[in-house]
Design brief:
By secondary structure, the protein is an alpha/beta fold. It folds into two domains: 193 residues, Rossmann fold, CATH 3.40.50; 59 residues, Orthogonal Bundle (Helicase, Ruva Protein, domain 3). 33% of the residues lie in helices and 18% in strands. The chain contains eleven helices and nine strands. The chain is elongated. The N terminus is likely disordered.
C-alpha cells in the first residue's frame, strides 16, 4: 500500500466527511502535520495515535517506521485508513479511545500523538493522568485555550484543575499555534500543539487520592478562599488556622497543594477519601 503523495494531499478533505458530533476538524496542511510529527520523539515506547481521521499525522509516523496503534471511532475514517496502510505498517482499532484499556493495547510504556477531537480533549488528558505510570509522552493538537490552561502557572486566570494535575506528573511545553484555515472544516477558535513529557515523579510526596480530591474541590469554588471552598470536606480544625487557607485555588502551585494535603493527612483526613 502506498503512502499518500504530496500532490494528493489537498484531496484529503474530500475523502472522509468530517462529522460535527465527533468534533472532527481534519488537518489539511502537510507542513504543519510534519512539524507536529517531528516534535514527537517516542523513543522505544509504543506509539498510539488518537483519532487519525484521514491519516494526516499517520503518514509521517509510518514514514519513520513507528508502527503506530491507531484508535479511531469513525467507521468512515477506519475504512479509508485500511485502504492507505497495511497491517504491517499500523495496528488499527475501531473504537472510542476513552473506553480503551490502554495497557492491554500498548503495553507498559507508550506515547500518544493526535489531532485530538475538540469535544473530548479534556477527557483525553484525564485518561492520560489515569495511565500516568505508562504514558511517557503526549504531543497533541487541541484548542488554544485548553493548551494555555494546561501550560499556565499559579496566578493566571486560566490556571485550573488540569494545570495542577498534569504539571504534577508532566513537564509541559506549548509548542506552537495553528490557525483555523488549515482544517476542514475550519474551527471557530485557534488551535495549539502541546507536549507533555513524563517527569521523574513516580509518586507524589502525599496521599495522591486526597491530592486529586482537594485540587478538584478547590477549583470548583475558585472564587472562594480555600477556607470556604474546602468547607464541605470536613477538614481537621487545625488546618483552617493555616495561612494558606486564606488563598484561592489559583494561587497555589503543585508543591503548595502537596503541603496542604500532608497537613490534612496529619490531622483526621478528608471526609469520603
Amino acid at each position: 500500500m502506498n503512502l499518500i503523495s504530496g500532490e494528493l494531499w489537498p484531496l484529503l478533505k474530500s475523502v472522509v466527511r468530517p462529522k460535527k458530533f465527533l468534533g472532527q476538524h481534519f488537518l489539511t496542511d502537510q507542513n504543519i502535520a510534519r512539524k507536529i510529527a517531528e516534535a514527537f520523539v517516542p523513543g522505544d515506547a509504543t506509539v498510539v495515535e488518537i483519532g487519525p481521521g484521514t491519516g494526516a499525522l499517520t503518514r509521517f509516523l509510518v514514514e519513520r517506521n513507528l508502527h503506530p496503534v491507531l484508535i479511531e471511532i469513525d467507521h468512515e475514517s477506519v475504512a479509508h485508513l485500511k485502504t492507505q496502510y497495511s497491517s504491517e505498517q499500523v495496528s488499527l482499532i475501531h473504537g472510542d479511545f476513552l473506553e480503551q484499556g490502554l495497557t492491554g493495547i500498548a503495553g507498559s510504556s507508550f506515547a500518544i500523538i493526535g489531532n485530538f477531537p475538540y469535544n473530548i480533549s479534556s477527557q483525553i488528558f484525564f485518561k492520560v493522568l489515569e495511565n500516568r505510570s505508562s504514558v511517557k509522552l503526549v504531543v497533541g493538537m487541541i484548542q488554544k485555550e485548553v493548551a494555555q490552561r494546561i501550560a499556565s502557572g499559579p496566578g493566571s486566570r486560566v490556571y485550573g484543575i488540569l494545570s495542577v494535575l498534569i504539571q504534577a506528573f508532566y513537564d509541559v511545553k506549548l509548542l506552537f499555534h495553528v490557525p483555523p484555515g488549515v482544517f476542514n472544516p475550519p474551527p471557530k477558535v485557534m488551535s495549539s500543539v502541546i507536549s507533555l513529557t513524563r517527569n521523574q515523579t513516580k509518586q507524589l510526596d502525599c496521599d495522591e487520592s486526597m491530592f486529586f480530591v482537594v485540587v478538584k474541590r478547590a477549583f470548583q469554588n475558585r472564587r472562594k478562599t480555600l477556607r470556604n471552598a474546602l468547607k464541605d470536606l470536613n477538614l481537621p480544625a487545625g488546618v483552617y488556622k493555616l495561612d494558606i487557607m486564606d488563598k484561592r485555588a489559583e494561587q497555589l502551585g503543585v508543591q503548595d497543594y502537596i503541603k496542604l494535603v500532608n497537613a490534612i493527612k496529619a490531622g483526621e483526613g478528608v471526609s469520603g477519601v
